[in-house]
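Sequence in, structure out. First:
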Amino acid sequence: MATKAKLKKKPRQPKLFKGNYIKEIDSAAEEFDDIKNTRSEYSKQETEANKRLVDLMHKHKRSRYETESELIVDITENSKASTKKKKQPKTDNDN
């Protein structure tokens, strides 16, 4: 049996900067990273909620549904849920 050749590990890249950190950039980078990580968590929750909604729409044999609070739910061709608020008719007071 042939053995796999061991791959050489690449040396780690040295730190780009040594000292002389710019607090303003550090702070902005930390803020960006926090927001990015929060968005990732919301993305996971959104995916789970979307799957639950799609499953319920299929269970009740619906491809379009209007909720009591006038939220319109559509199931797209690729089985994703899409929601939007129902458009309110314009009144004479709206300009």
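Second:
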Amino acid sequence: MSRTALGIPKMTRITISMNSQVETKIKEIQQHLTKIDGKPQSISKVINTVLVAGIVGSSKLSVYDWTVIMSFIKGKRIDLEAATGEEYLSNILALSQ
């Protein structure tokens, strides 16, 4: 039986470039997910989790929050060291409840 027949959405493989600060945070989140779940988590699963959390949480962002995000995307440095991977993960999990 095919994936689509089972109701599983089609997955698309893409290649992305990632800022080193973002990559570090993604890896921290991956480590904490692995600790919680007790089994290794793929980087693609972690990135998909963060993306979905961002999409869901975007409705709760203020104009200022979007300005900060866009500044980061445009190459201005923003301190991502303020929160640990564990704090990011707990925020992501809170969004899902």
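Remark: The radius of gyration is 15 Å.
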